[in-house]
Write a structure and sequence with these properties.
This is Ppx/GppA family phosphatase. The chain has 308 residues and is α/β, with parallel strands linked by helices. Helix 2 runs parallel beside helix 4 and helix 5 crosses helix 13. The radius of gyration is 19 Å and the shape is globular. The chain starts with 11 loop residues before the first strand and ends with a helix. The chain contains 13 helices and eleven strands. The chain has a six-stranded mixed sheet, with helices on both faces. Strands 3-2-1-4-5 form a five-stranded mixed sheet, with helices on both faces.
Length: 308
């Protein structure tokens, strides 16, 4: 993608998020005006479920899914051309980080499609998740924990009075849990860290990110009408009902897709575990994710180049 034509046309950014459960393409266009505002042009989500290979298949992505990923990247590249994308970034997270053949697949994608995929570590993933929301938190009093639950990992960012305290990543994700691939040691580290943070920063508010918490928010019976949040007791009630149903029953009763109906239960467990340890009463759901953070980073990079 050419990046030196911003003055001649509307600036359009694309983010490709290659996750453990799904691969997303988000395209946004920058509006004219004094403040940076984006219009969502396109959002596609394809459930390649790479993590099911990596976490249960000896640590490698299968040949079939490798071919599917190459085909999907070819399609995404054509869509970026159609939408006249000015700049893009493609990031791969937990499944590709752990895949024994991840680097080989990235080289193949680059050779056959021209798309450069970056494998980002958990710390960078955690920071990118809240990037597009952080400006709203500057000067905000109180303790806020951003929690992004993915298929292969969970990222948290703790902010105290608008300042970032820590960013951490755990190999605890919905696909890993379904494949019994989370170690006891990782669970202990996770719980111990949450207990330490809760003790040091009382009154933590949780801000949830990811497709599962967005869906849970839509399904929960009682919403807070003033804010995009749900009471943890309402989430617990929904979670108890979901976990006692089969995947087929969840699909039928809640109109869930197959690749959402299985992972939604372990996602709820992770959020509720954090809420129980921290004592959080509400989970705020502003509908943010890694793709949004990627685009925010592209915009910031563009602005820094313009100012130099």
């Amino acid at each position: 993608m050419e990046t030196n034509e911003f003055k001649d046309r509307a600036v359009t950014y694309a983010a490709i998020d290659i996750g453990s459960n799904a691969v997303r393409l988000l395209i946004k266009q920058l509006e004219d005006g004094l403040l940076p505002r984006f219009n969502k042009v396109l959002l596609l989500r394809v459930p390649l479920r790479l993590g099911f290979d990596v976490f249960s298949n000896g640590g490698s992505i299968s040949d079939r899914k490798r071919k599917d990923l190459v085909r999907l990247m070819k399609s995404y590249k054509q869509l970026m051309r159609i939408y006249d994308v000015s700049d893009y970034r493609a990031c791969a997270t937990s499944a590709m980080r752990d895949a024994a053949n991840g680097r080989d697949i990235i080289r193949e994608v680059r050779k056959k499609t021209g798309i450069d995929i970056e494998i980002i570590d958990g710390q960078e993933e955690a920071r990118m998740v809240y990037n597009n929301h952080i400006e709203n938190m500057k000067g905000q009093r109180g303790n806020f924990m951003y929690v992004d639950v993915g298929g292969g990992s969970t990222e948290i960012n703790l902010l105290a009075d608008g300042e970032l305290v820590c960013s951490r990543s755990y190999n605890i994700g919905t696909v890993r849990m379904l494949n019994s691939a989370v170690t006891d040691g990782e669970w202990r580290r996770f719980r111990s860290d949450m207990e330490d943070l809760a003790a040091s920063y009382p009154g933590i508010n949780i801000i949830g990110s990811g497709g599962n918490i967005n869906k849970l928010y839509k399904l929960v019976e009682r919403h807070d009408k003033r804010y995009p949040r749900m009471h943890t007791s309402s989430l617990q009630k929904l979670h108890d009902k979901l976990k006692n149903m089969s995947v087929r029953q969840r699909m039928e009763e809640y109109n869930l897709k197959p690749d959402r109906a299985d992972v939604i239960v372990p996602a709820g467990e992770i959020f509720l575990t954090i809420a129980a340890i921290t004592g959080a009463v509400y989970i705020y759901v502003p509908v943010i994710g890694l793709s949004d953070g990627i685009i925010d980073g592209l915009y910031t990079r563009h602005m820094s180049r313009s100012d130099s």
